[in-house]
Amino acid sequence: MQPQPQPPQQPRILNHDELKSKWDAFSKTFQQVLEPSTNITAQSLISSLALYANNECSRHQKIHILDIGCGGGGGSFLIASQMPNSDDYELTSMDLSPEMVKLTRERCQILTQAPFHRKIHVVEGSAENLPFPDETFDAVFSNYCLHLVPNPDQMLKEIHRVLKKGGKASLSVWGRPENSPSFTVMQKAMMECKKRFNSHDGDENLVPLRSPFHLHQKDPLRERVLNAGFSKCLAWYQFQPFHAFSAREFAELNSLTPDFRALVEGSEEKRLELLNVLEGMAKETFDKNEPIGNEVLIVLMSKE
């Protein structure tokens, strides 16, 4: 009798404590190395919300904005810097990581002082249990956060809960992997070097982590948004270039990330080998005189 095939293992999802620890450790490197590229998407999210359009200003109503998963403060700084000089605008930024909260406070501090006097509050909290009363915010912004939380559907329900009627929310997640070489090239280079370094011992016994691309399909994500209670939802893909002008620069910047450092284990020989493999894989894109980057899925939703 042949043995029955085993069902595939469900991917492991990082819990809140693991996420907090990971992003605390990665906070400064993220702000310096990766966040500059994500700010391109942040500006698209801000524009889609039309926060400062004339029709909004003419209503003479107070506008309270929430940034969920504020990271190193790049998106929050963009939002606050574009807010009119008016007491009618207020921004609350939130992150699970205390270190990210600290970085956002430091980054936005200048905008709270003269001559700007922006109203900015930065707090620690979970996207799945937002520490705010119902219908607090006129707009919600979240850049590259939904695909990271353990329960994305719960986060969407929480956004709907804290959003006022007539309010809008915009968020982004990783797009399709086949259109995201800045992410997939790094993964391929690390897999290749794991074989070379014999660093895969025991990997077959490890439960793989949930892919950050798990929300990349447009229509299923729209359905989840509508199931969370939103009345309307638009979704589209766009390209986000990585801020590197050569394959070597791309490789050098990625060498600062925790995954790269963990694989090379402090060995200069391994560092150079992984650096060269990564550069070689990225070179194909740069040889076309095109930037390397990734695809982003943007979702704009409204509550009636």
Class from helix and strand fractions: alpha/beta
The beta-strand count equals 7
Q: Percentage of helical residues?
A: 40-55%
Residue-averaged pLDDT: 91
Assembly category: single chain
Summed up, the helix count is: 10
Low-pLDDT sequence parts: 54-58
Main sheet overview: 7 strands, mixed
CATH superfamily of the largest domain: Vaccinia Virus protein VP39
Sheet with the most strands: spatial strand order = 3-2-1-4-5-7-6
Helix and strand element order: HHEHEHEEHEHHEHHHE
Instruction: Report the portion of residues in β strands.
Output: 15-25%
Count of discrete domains: 2
- Rg, Å, rounded: 21 Å
CATH top level class name of the largest domain:
Alpha Beta
Note the gap between the termini: 60 Å
Gross morphology: globular
GO molecular function, one term: S-adenosylmethionine-dependent methyltransferase activity
Domain Methyltransferase type: 66-169
Protein name: Methyltransferase type 11 domain-containing protein
Organism: Naegleria fowleri (Brain eating amoeba)
Helix and strand topology:
Elements lengths: L15 H34 L4 H4 L5 E6 L5 H9 L6 E7 L2 H11 L10 E6 L12 E7 L8 H11 E12 L6 H17 L20 H10 L4 E10 L5 H8 L3 H7 L3 H19 L6 E10 L2
Parallel strand pairs: 1-2, 1-4, 2-3, 4-5
Antiparallel strand pairs: 5-7, 6-7
Helix pairs in contact: 1-3, 1-4, 6-10, 8-10, 9-10
What does this structure look like?
It is a single chain. It contains ten helices and seven strands. It is α/β, with parallel strands linked by helices and 304 residues long. It folds into two domains: 16-176 and 211-242 and 294-303, Vaccinia Virus protein VP39 (Rossmann fold), CATH 3.40.50; 179-203 and 245-288. A seven-stranded mixed β-sheet has the order 3-2-1-4-5-7-6, sandwiched between helices. Helix 4 links the parallel strand 2 (89-95) and strand 3. Helix 1 runs parallel beside helix 4. It starts with 15 loop residues before the first helix and ends with a strand. This is Methyltransferase type 11 domain-containing protein.
